[in-house]
Every structure is written in C-alpha cells, then in structure tokens.
Amino acid sequence: MSVVKTADVKEVWIGDNFTYTLVITNTGTKTAKAVVVNDPAPNHINFNVSGVTTTQGSVDSSSTSKNIIVNVGDIPPAGTVTIKIPATVIA
Question: What region holds the DUF11 domain (predicted)?
Fold first, then answer.
C-alpha cells in the first residue's frame, strides 16, 4: 500500500480553510481487504467531518474534527482511492 497526503495550499494562517487529499494505492499483487484509513489531525487543525469525500467506501460515524476514519473496503491490485478532507487552521 502507498499513501500520499498533500494539501491544496503551501501556507496557511489562523482561520484559513484548505483541503487535504489522500491517495491510497494498492501497490501489491493481491486485493487489500477491508481497508480502513485513520487520519489524525495535526495540532492547530480541525477537520470538517461533514465535508469529507471518498471515491470508495464511507466516512465512519465515529469520525471527529480531530480524527477522520474512512472504511474504504477492498482495493484491488493497482487500485486507487482518493479521500478529500476539508480543514481549518485554529489558534
């Protein structure tokens, strides 16, 4: 598995909104079963849980502004899933 996380901005200030993008790729030769992505927020960042999108699976109901959990499910070899997480910089 490969996970690449990027932000759509290079600099942020308190109160700024931006989006993290996670791209999860199965680099193996077998299907990855029951994949769950757990992404904790860095200090001074809150996630907007209701704005999270995923190309496969669903956002877990236990997700919070400090921790996003996505139940992706199975990813076939060379399969890719993209998760977008809106975030806000807090004091």
Answer: 2-89
Question: Going from the N-terminus, what domains does the chain have, and what CATH number goes with each?
Answer: 2-89 (2.60.40.1170)
Distance set, CA 35 to CA 25, 32, 46, 57 (Å)? 11, 7, 24, 9
pTM above 0.85? yes
Are the CB atoms for 87 and 20 separated by under 8 Å? yes
Regarding predicted confidence, which is higher, 91 or 44?
Answer: 44
pLDDT band at 4 (very low <50, low <70, confident <90, very high): very high
DSSP string, 36-78: EEEEEPPTTEEE-GGG-EESSSEE-TT-BTTEEEEEEEEE-TT
Q: How many CA atoms lie within 13 Å of 33's alpha carbon, on the beta-carbon side?
A: 1
40-87, pLDDT tens digit by residue? 999 999 999 999 999 999 999 999 999 999 999 999 999 999 999 999
